[in-house]
Amino acid sequence: MADLNLLNNLAELYKVFADFTRVRILYALFEEEISVGQIAERLNMTVSAISHQLRTLKSAGLVKYRREGKVCLYSLSDDHVKTIILMGIEHITEEKKYE
Length: 99
Hints:
- The protein has a single domain, classed as Winged helix-like DNA-binding domain superfamily/Winged helix DNA-binding domain (Arc Repressor Mutant, subunit A, Orthogonal Bundle), CATH 1.10.10.10.
- It is built from five helices and three strands; from the N terminus they run H-H-E-H-H-E-E-H.
- It has helices at residues 4-16, 20-28, 36-43, 47-59, 79-97, and strands spanning 34-35, 63-68, 71-76.
- A three-stranded antiparallel beta sheet has the order 1-3-2.
């Protein structure tokens, strides 16, 4: 049996993916690093709302940022994040074939 702490951490990670806005932000970061303002514009949301969700994503280790002057550019923390999302999409798409 897996370590209970490990399983709890896994459950916490998946909770982060349970929010539609956070998934949209992650998907927006698939190809390039972009600023909070650019994310807000693409998702038609406020900068404040995006910033709030980015804090959660950063705390979960799913996004990282770097400063370029006064601007923070966000990107996926690593390829695992992209893989998790793509595997979820593949699973959902595959499931529909059998309905």
